[in-house]
Amino acid sequence: MTSLPLIPVDPDAPGARRAAMPPQHLADLDLAGRKALVTELGEPAFRAGQVSTHYFGRLVRDPALMTDLPAASRERLADQLLPRLLNPVRELACDEGATRKALWRLHDGSLVESVLMGYPDRITVCISSQAGCGMACPFCATGQAGLTRNLSTAEIVDQAVYLAGVAASGVVAGSPPRLSHVVFMGMGEPLANYNRVVAAIRRLVAPAPEGLGLSQRHITVSTVGLVPAIHRLASEDLSVTLALSLHAPDDELRDELVPVNQRWKVSEVLDAAWAYAARTGRRVSIEYAMIKDVNDQPWRADLLGRLLAGKLAHVNLIPLNPTPGSRWDASPKPVEREFVRRLRDAGVSTTVRDTRGREIDGACGQLAAAEDTGTDPAGESSA
């Protein structure tokens, strides 16, 4: 059995270990905080609005392009409000350009990933909330790498702003040019970086120039099931979707696949999810990776159906994207179809996630792992 990870549900609590964080960025602050900082620099407060309009409203991240700012002020404001947070290491595209994955190196050398996915009716970005992950799920590349540190609010937001700029450039053919959806399903456990993730959500949904102006209902936050944090999120007065990474309906298997289950069992996690749904009115997304001969048995489909029947929930079955050298593999398509049939027969809304980005190491953590080991996305040495 995999050992239970240590979980700082509130990493900003007294005594929590603090890693070296990046310099402060305007996305770490609300608009009032930005104005206060600008006035401390001897600039008029309205300069904060100008810089924020460039960053959030026009998706401009390069201070040199902010020509409405006086040249004498631009460098000072850029140093204090727009330090470089994400340094591109590699960007890959597939699905005829509709899927684009970015690998970033942070100020301390940590690697994180984010993905843009274009559809006919929307642009979705998947962003990371931690460098690595401490949840130790054995079938996940990020979980096997371990946790390096939490990301700052601005490091989280900057991924979305960058990819919103990519979308706005029009390079994603067949999709609208405006970012509409953000999912916290990249590297890390979002609710283990609770305060910064919630602050990032507030930046994403605040109207420009304070934020990116996205709909709360178009934000999805994934969790392996940190029960106290789920209850806390329900009290935030946010209408975001909760995605619960369940992966097994029974405690015996989930203890192995999702080690945090050793602390909060399936029944406790689902009770917290139903409480979230009742408080917010939002349907919970149940994430379930289909793993060959591990969690894809018909009886587990039936058990899952009984647990979810009549609840405000939708099952999102995920064909596993195996990591190189892993003993875990995706369920065969006939097995997957039977699993879907049984859930639907139980009255549970079920879909199978669109498989995107397999040829560019689309699964969370694979591109970072390839960079660390000196291999390219095809698994060959990059030396």
UniProtKB/TrEMBL annotation:
S-adenosyl-L-methionine binds at G188, E189, S222, S245, L246, H247, N321. GO terms for biological process: rRNA base methylation; tRNA methylation. Keywords: 4Fe-4S, Cytoplasm, Disulfide bond, Iron, Iron-sulfur, Metal-binding, Methyltransferase, rRNA processing, S-adenosyl-L-methionine, Transferase, tRNA processing. It catalyses: adenosine(2503) in 23S rRNA + 2 reduced [2Fe-2S]-[ferredoxin] + 2 S-adenosyl-L-methionine = 2-methyladenosine(2503) in 23S rRNA + 5'-deoxyadenosine + L-methionine + 2 oxidized [2Fe-2S]-[ferredoxin] + S-adenosyl-L-homocysteine; adenosine(37) in tRNA + 2 reduced [2Fe-2S]-[ferredoxin] + 2 S-adenosyl-L-methionine = 2-methyladenosine(37) in tRNA + 5'-deoxyadenosine + L-methionine + 2 oxidized [2Fe-2S]-[ferredoxin] + S-adenosyl-L-homocysteine. GO terms for molecular function: 4 iron, 4 sulfur cluster binding; metal ion binding; rRNA (adenine(2503)-C2-)-methyltransferase activity; rRNA binding; tRNA (adenine(37)-C2)-methyltransferase activity; tRNA binding. GO terms for cellular component: cytoplasm. The active site is at E113, C364. It is found in: Cytoplasm. It comes from the Bacteria. Its main location: cytoplasm. Its cofactor is [4Fe-4S] cluster. Reaction proceeds by a ping-pong mechanism involving intermediate methylation of a conserved cysteine residue. HAMAP family: RNA_methyltr_RlmN (MF_01849). This is Probable dual-specificity RNA methyltransferase RlmN.
